[in-house]
Amino acid sequence: MKQRNVFHAVMLIMIMIGMPLSTYVRAAVDAPRISKEDVKALLGDPGVIILDARTGSSWYNSDKKIKGAVRVDPDEVSSWAGSIPKDKKIIVYCS
Exposed site from 39, 43, 57, 94, fewest CB < 10 Å? Predict the structure, then answer.
């Protein structure tokens, strides 16, 4: 009986960890793509928000940053996602 409860607990943890990951991967695959030329054409448009989601060293060590882009931590989406206006076009980039 005890082994069965441990098995169910492990399965529940695996499901809890796997569901958000699968949602994230699916969202990344379903996200529309945009060319750099199209992004350049949108620079300065007040209806567009550009998010730089590069991780620490990728961002800090880069001399290439889009002027006006807002840096966000991809590991902390829940802390900043609610502050992004839903009525604007959102462009997220990373490398």
Answer: 57
